[in-house]
């Protein structure tokens, strides 16, 4: 890969992320406002694409050249594991909202369900979502053999698709936020939420980009990512 080509995948992926945000967020936000079981299928599909994207990034072999020194603690398994758990909690909560589970908890009819049934419903349903979402934690902390060679066109394509898939997950989270704020009108403190959203997106989407950075050795792969998540954070604020 030439010097120019080394920078193109991340740039195109973040431009594609902006395009996906523009096209999909209004559609997904309206869809998620209609609380239904079908939304769980959508969330599952997006989560699967996200996991495949992260796996693809970890399959990339490092490019030759000067490496970028990053703090070693960023790649410690306990840190990655904690970020994986945070992601699992976030996507579980998002799924619980868009399928109407949180509303059903408030409106649950104890006259129709006995106590054991209520307990099973309240505990098993979110636990199943959380358990599936922990697949991402395992993906982050597990060792993956890098097999995609930098000198092939496949390397360029895998980089582009992997980074775009990660960005797509950020678009989905933003759509969920917008669906929530559309329901809770009159919320104040947009600047406060903007900062929190930005930090949250860094925690949720940052690890895959760091994995790519240590393989690509180009700061542009992060520089183009920061405006993208800032844009998402703005859209996700009330």
Account of the 3D structure:
There is one protein chain. With 238 residues, this protein is mainly α. The protein contains ten helices and no strands. It has helices at 3-33, 38-58, 77-98, 101-106, 115-133, 135-141, 153-183, 190-216, 220-223, 225-236. α1 runs parallel beside α7, α3 (77-98) crosses α5 (115-133) and α3 (77-98) packs across α7. The relative contact order is 0.21.
TL;DR of this structure?
The protein is an all-alpha fold and 238 residues long. 76% of the residues lie in helices and 0% in strands.
Describe the secondary-structure layout.
Layout: H1 3-33, H2 38-58, H3 77-98, H4 101-106, H5 115-133, H6 135-141, H7 153-183, H8 190-216, H9 220-223, H10 225-236
Helix pairs in contact: 1-7, 1-10, 2-3, 2-7, 3-5, 3-6, 3-7, 7-8, 7-10, 8-10
Features:
single chain, 238 residues, mainly alpha, 10 helices
List how many beta strands DSSP finds. Answer: 0
CA-based gyration radius = 19 Å
Cα end-to-end separation? 43 Å
Mean pLDDT: 86
What is the percentage of strand-forming residues? under 5%
Contiguous runs where pLDDT drops below 50 for at least 5 residues: 109-114
Helix share, percent: over 70%
The largest β sheet comes out as: none
Number of H- or I-type helical stretches? 10
Global shape: globular
Give, in order, the helices and strands. Answer: HHHHHHHHHH
Structural class per helix/strand content? mainly alpha
């Amino acid at each position: 890969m030439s010097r120019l080509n080394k920078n193109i995948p991340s740039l195109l992926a973040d431009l594609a992320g902006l395009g996906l945000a523009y096209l999909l967020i209004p559609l997904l936000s309206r869809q998620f406002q209609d609380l239904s079981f079908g939304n769980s299928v959508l969330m599952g599909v997006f989560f699967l694409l996200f996991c495949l994207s992260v796996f693809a990034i970890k399959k990339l072999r490092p490019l030759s050249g000067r490496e970028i020194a990053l703090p070693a603690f960023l790649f410690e398994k306990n840190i990655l594991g904690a970020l994986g758990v945070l992601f699992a909690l976030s996507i579980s909560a998002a799924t619980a909202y868009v399928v109407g589970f949180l509303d059903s908890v408030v409106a649950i009819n104890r006259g129709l369900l006995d106590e054991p049934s209520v307990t099973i419903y309240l505990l098993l349903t979110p636990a199943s979502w959380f358990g599936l979402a922990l697949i991402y934690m395992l993906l982050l902390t597990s060792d993956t053999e890098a097999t995609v060679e930098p000198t092939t066109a496949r390397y360029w394509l895998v980089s582009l698709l992997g980074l775009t898939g990660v960005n797509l997950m950020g678009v989905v989270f933003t759509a969920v936020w917008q669906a929530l704020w559309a329901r809770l009108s009159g919320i104040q403190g947009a600047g406060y939420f903007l900062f929190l959203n930005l930090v949250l997106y860094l925690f949720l989407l940052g690890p895959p980009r760091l994995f790519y950075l240590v393989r690509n050795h180009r700061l542009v792969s992060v520089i183009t990512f920061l405006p993208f998540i800032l844009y998402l954070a703005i859209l996700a604020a009330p």
